[in-house]
Design goal:
3-stranded antiparallel beta sheet; 9 strands; alpha+beta; 6-stranded mixed beta sheet; 25% helix; single chain; binds zinc ion; 221 residues; CNF1/YfiH-like putative cysteine hydrolases
Length: 221
């Protein structure tokens, strides 16, 4: 059975505004602190070294293994290797962990990734290597009340992706609903962890804090 976890802010070492368990190297935190936190996470997993990706809000899904684990630039990684933890980092974007028979995946799905097909690219690539019986866990992410965008963007996006729409006059986007619809369309069972990063003090939120850390979603087959 695949195992999954999502980290929060508590634990780890802090530096300045990155209070606690920041796992991202690209956000201006001290690299030594980030690496200490990554070591803590790795030791808690008691498996092989977890694989991180260099996330770029794109739609690329890449197969990884212990032999192919360095400098991965992608927003989805998947593997059929047992015991190899995959990590997605986020602070408002949707961290999506995919379990299947034969493979697992970690997907970083923000607004850009969602509308450019990162989820379907990943599921299709996993099916191509023989994975079946998909289940997804959507981790802590910004909720439909908190993710306001400007009116022009709201109208453009909800025209193309009606599931992003929210009620009322706040022109906020519902990323979870869009991800849920895409996953269901792909035949994937979905569970959602109902925590809004922007409202939870114990989660990193880019929207709320600007300069901040990133939490991890981790999955291993
Ligand atoms: Zn919220």
């Amino acid at each position: 059975m695949p195992q999954t976890l999502f980290t929060a802010r508590s634990g780890g070492v802090s530096s300045r505004e990155f209070t606690s368990f920041n796992l991202a190297l690209h956000v201006g935190d001290l690299a030594a602190h980030v690496m200490t936190n990554r070591d803590l996470l790795a030791s808690a997993l008691s498996q092989r070294q977890p694989i991180y990706m260099n996330q770029v809000h794109g739609n690329l899904a890449i197969e990884v293994s212990s032999a192919n684990s360095k400098a991965i630039t992608a927003d989805a990684i998947f593997t059929s290797e047992v015991g190899l933890p995959l990590v997605v980092l986020s602070a408002d974007c949707l961290p999506i962990l995919i379990s299947a028979k034969g493979a697992v995946a970690a997907i970083h799905a923000g607004r850009e990734g969602l509308i450019n097909g990162v989820i379907s690219n990943c599921i299709q690539a996993m099916r191509a290597i023989g994975a079946i019986d998909f289940e997804a866990q959507i981790g802590p992410a910004i909720c439909a009340n908190c993710y306001e965008v400007d009116m022009q963007m709201y109208l453009e996006l909800t025209d193309r992706f009606p599931n992003l729409a929210t009620e009322g006059s706040r022109h906020a986007l519902n990323l979870r609903a869009e991800a849920l619809a895409q996953l269901k369309e792909l035949g994937v069972k979905v569970s959602i962890i109902d925590i809004c990063t922007a409202e939870s003090e114990n989660h990193f939120s880019y929207r709320r804090d600007g300069k901040t850390g990133r939490g991890a979603g981790v999955i291993a087959l």
